[in-house]
Specification:
With about 280 residues, the protein is of the alpha+beta class. The protein is built from 5 helices and 15 strands.
């Protein structure tokens, strides 16, 4: 009887303490979030030099796309959606941040002027250039960048909440993890703007550094599971945005390197300008 009484007291005290712990729960908690979704940095290359090649150049706003669809493995967590997108889709593609395009445009303009070009304007696209714009410049520079995501973090629930007499004995958790990197395609193209004939093109491909996406959410009761799943998805989006931000920084810096190294200068640039003028004459523009 004494043993049974001690066992009853132990069980009762355990249930009471579990109830107290359960009552103190404030809902699901994020215990891990990596990488941090800190904003990317796009440094502007500056130069005070003016063109001395007498070659007029127009620069088209940097274009391209980010294909960054992520898929969550719904097999182990029934409430997770099958797919989601981490950025707003416009015109069927995920667009670059405005700051990325603006700062890259400024940097390209600065490098072009340093190499001797007379940059006479920047345009959102070739289509918005007027006939007069296209006629008065020898060369239009078109930058293009594409990023394709490799790796799709999946979510699962490796731990379960055990129960005794209807009371939780442990914490449940949701873990979302995988390495994410991007394949980047960089293209530097120069055309004669009226005929759209290619004068020069240089392309470069590389893989960004892998970013380990790691999100963990813990919860204390079955009633919190649905809320925990939604929290895990939202935090996974933030972590993937952090991985994308780092990839955008890499792509930005690599493109500046591409322009600095390969944008024609000197006699090569003058030869391209002569070709452009000849094309205008042949087409009677």
């Amino acid at each position: 009887m004494r043993v049974m009484y001690k066992y009853f007291l132990f069980l009762a005290s355990f249930i009471v303490s579990t109830l107290l712990l359960s009552s103190c729960s404030t809902g699901p908690k994020v215990v891990k979030l990596s990488p941090s979704p800190t904003p990317p940095t796009f440094k502007v290359v500056s130069s005070n030099l003016k063109g001395n090649l007498n070659i007029r150049m127009a620069i088209i706003k940097p274009g391209g796309e980010v294909k960054a669809l992520s898929f969550a493995n719904a097999g182990k967590i029934s409430m997770l959606p099958i797919q989601y997108q981490i950025q707003t889709v416009k015109n069927g593609k995920i667009e670059f941040p405005d700051l990325f395009q603006e700062n890259l445009l400024k940097s390209i303009e600065s490098i072009a002027m340093k190499k001797g070009y007379n940059v006479v304007g920047a345009f959102d696209s070739w289509e918005v250039m007027t006939y007069g714009d296209k006629k008065r410049v020898e060369i239009a520079l078109i930058p293009r960048i594409s990023l394709f995501e490799i790796g799709s973090p999946s979510c699962n629930s490796p731990g379960k909440i055990l129960n005794a007499l209807g009371m939780p004995l442990g914490e449940g958790k949701i873990v979302c993890a995988d390495d994410v990197r991007y394949k980047c395609e960089l293209v530097l193209e120069m055309i004669e703007p009226l005929t759209r004939e290619k004068l020069f093109i240089k392309s470069f491909e590389f893989l960004t550094k892998p970013q380990h996406v790691d999100v963990e959410v813990k919860y204390s009761s079955d009633e919190e599971k649905f809320e925990a799943q939604n929290l895990a998805i939202n935090k996974l989006k933030e972590a993937e945005q952090g991985a994308l931000n780092r990839a955008l920084e890499e792509a930005y810096n690599k493109y500046i390197e591409l322009v600095e190294k390969y944008l024609p200068e000197g006699e090569e640039a003058k030869s391209l300008a002569k070709q452009a003028l000849q094309l205008k004459k042949e087409k009677r523009y």
